[in-house]
C-alpha cells in the first residue's frame, strides 16, 4: 500500500523546531511533512495550499498558540476540510481528551506507541479524500461587493496613471538620500487571513527590519504591564469570579502540562502580561528625512493603489496587519475584523489617527470590528471624505 500511494502530505504543528526535525526524520519514508511553528505559518500554508495536505498533525501543547484556540478557529471560521489529529505522549485525563476532540480534533495518537495505527489512518485519509484538488479556497467566500470592487478598480487605475510623474520624482529623492530600493514590501494579513505583498514607498533605512527589536520600547500601544514574554503564573486555585459565585470553575482550559485550569484566571493573567497586538512608534529613529515627509503626508501609502488594483485590498477597509500583529488577533473577540476587506484607509484612521497614542489598542480593535459588522458603499464614501483632512497629520508615527 505504501508503494502505491507514495508519501502522504501532512501539515505538522509544533512550537519546537527540533521536535519537527525528529518527526520528519522518523517518517521520511512515509510522510511529506510541512512544518508550521507559529499561527502565521499555519495560515500562510493554508492560504497557499488549502487542499495540499491530507491532515493536520498537531503536536503542540493544547494551551499554546498552536493549540485548542487555533484549531477551533481553523475548523469553525475557516472551515478547514482536513481532519486534525492530536499527537501527544503525555497522559491525558478524560476531561482533557474530550476537550481536544470538542475543539475540532478527530483523533488522538501517541507518536511513539501508535506509529502504525497513525500511518494506517493517514493512508485511509489520503485514499478517500472527497474534496477535489482544484476545489475553491474558503477565502473565496469572502468576496468583495461588486459595487465596491468597481469603484476600487476605476479609482485606483486612474490614480496610478495620474500619479506616475510624481512616482518618478519621489524615486529620485529617495535614492539621493539613502541606498536601497525605491519601493518596499512586507507581508501583510488581509481579509480571510490571506497573506499578500503590501507595497509602500520606502521611508526607512534599508536595515529597518533588523532594528525592530531595539525600538519596540517606543511603541505607543505599549503599557507598563505588557511584557510579551512573561510566563503566566497559573495556579490550580479558583479565580475571584468563580470564588465569588461559590461554585467550581465552569470554564476550563488545558495548560502546558496537560492540566485543567480556570479560564477566567488564565485570561486575567494573560491580559496583564501580554504584549500589545499593534506596533506604532512615535518619532521612529529608523525613518529618513524624505521618509518623514512621505509619512506625514501619507504619500508613502500610494503604491498600495497597486494592491487595490490587484484585489489584495480595497480603498476603504480594515488595515492589513503585519504577520506578528495578526498572530495575536485569532480569538473570537477580535477575529471578526478579518471578515471585512483590507483597506488603504479605514474607520480607525479617520476616528483619531495616530494622535499621540490617545487611541488605545482596545479602541482600535473595536473600531475594526465595527467596520466589519456593517460596512457599506455609503460608509466607505464618508470615510474617504473624512480621510482627506486626516492626511496631513502632525504626529510622526
From TrEMBL:
<feature type="transmembrane region" description="Helical">
    <location>
        <begin position="153"/>
        <end position="174"/>
    </location>
</feature>
<dbReference type="Pfam" id="PF02397">
    <property type="entry name" value="Bac_transf"/>
</dbReference>
<keyword id="KW-0472">Membrane</keyword>
<keyword id="KW-0812">Transmembrane</keyword>
<comment type="similarity">
    <text>Belongs to the bacterial sugar transferase family.</text>
</comment>
<keyword id="KW-0808">Transferase</keyword>
<keyword id="KW-1133">Transmembrane helix</keyword>
<feature type="domain" description="Bacterial sugar transferase">
    <location>
        <begin position="148"/>
        <end position="392"/>
    </location>
</feature>
<protein>
    <submittedName>
        <fullName>Sugar transferase</fullName>
    </submittedName>
</protein>
<dbReference type="InterPro" id="IPR003362">
    <property type="entry name" value="Bact_transf"/>
</dbReference>
<dbReference type="GO" id="GO:0016740">
    <property type="term" value="F:transferase activity"/>
</dbReference>
Amino acid at each position: 500500500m505504501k508503494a502505491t500511494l507514495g508519501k502522504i502530505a501532512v501539515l505538522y504543528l509544533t512550537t519546537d523546531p527540533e521536535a519537527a526535525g525528529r518527526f520528519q526524520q522518523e517518517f521520511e519514508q512515509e510522510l511529506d511533512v510541512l512544518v508550521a511553528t507559529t499561527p502565521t505559518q499555519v495560515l500562510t500554508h493554508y492560504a497557499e495550499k488549502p487542499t495540499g495536505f491530507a491532515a493536520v498533525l498537531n503536536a503542540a501543547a493544547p494551551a499554546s498558540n498552536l493549540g485548542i484556540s487555533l484549531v477551533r478557529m481553523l475548523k469553525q471560521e475557516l472551515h478547514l476540510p482536513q481532519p486534525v489529529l492530536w499527537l501527544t505522549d503525555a497522559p491525558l485525563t478524560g476531561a482533557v481528551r474530550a476537550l481536544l476532540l470538542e475543539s475540532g480534533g478527530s483523533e488522538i495518537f501517541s507518536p511513539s506507541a501508535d506509529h502504525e495505527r497513525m500511518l494506517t489512518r493517514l493512508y485511509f485519509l489520503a485514499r478517500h479524500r472527497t474534496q477535489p484538488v482544484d476545489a475553491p479556497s474558503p477565502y473565496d467566500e469572502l468576496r468583495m461587493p461588486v459595487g465596491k470592487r468597481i469603484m476600487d478598480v476605476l479609482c485606483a487605475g486612474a490614480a496610478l496613471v495620474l500619479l506616475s510623474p510624481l512616482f518618478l520624482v519621489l524615486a529620485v529623492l529617495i535614492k539621493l538620500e539613502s541606498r536601497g530600493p525605491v519601493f518596499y514590501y512586507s507581508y501583510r494579513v488581509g481579509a480571510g487571513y490571506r497573506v499578500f505583498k503590501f507595497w509602500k514607498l520606502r521611508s526607512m533605512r534599508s536595515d529597518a527590519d533588523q532594528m525592530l527589536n531595539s525600538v519596540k520600547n517606543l511603541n505607543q500601544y505599549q503599557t507598563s504591564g505588557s511584557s510579551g514574554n512573561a510566563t503566566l503564573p497559573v495556579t490550580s486555585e479558583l479565580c475571584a469570579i468563580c470564588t465569588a459565585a461559590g461554585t467550581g470553575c465552569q470554564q476550563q482550559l488545558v495548560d502546558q502540562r496537560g492540566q485543567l485550569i480556570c479560564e477566567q484566571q488564565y485570561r486575567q493573567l494573560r491580559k496583564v502580561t501580554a504584549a500589545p497586538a499593534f506596533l506604532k512608534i512615535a518619532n521612529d529613529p529608523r525613518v529618513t528625512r524624505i521618509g518623514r515627509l512621505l509619512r506625514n503626508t501619507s504619500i508613502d501609502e500610494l503604491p498600495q493603489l497597486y494592491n487595490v488594483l490587484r484585489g489584495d485590498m480595497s480603498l476603504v477597509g480594515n488595515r492589513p496587519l503585519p504577520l506578528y500583529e495578526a498572530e495575536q488577533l485569532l480569538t473570537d473577540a477580535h477575529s471578526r475584523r478579518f471578515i471585512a476587506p483590507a483597506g488603504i484607509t479605514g474607520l480607525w484612521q479617520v476616528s483619531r489617527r495616530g494622535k499621540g497614542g490617545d487611541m488605545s489598542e482596545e479602541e482600535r480593535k473595536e473600531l475594526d470590528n465595527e467596520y466589519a459588522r456593517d460596512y457599506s458603499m455609503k460608509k466607505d464614501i464618508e470615510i474617504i471624505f473624512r480621510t482627506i483632512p486626516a492626511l496631513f497629520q502632525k504626529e510622526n508615527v
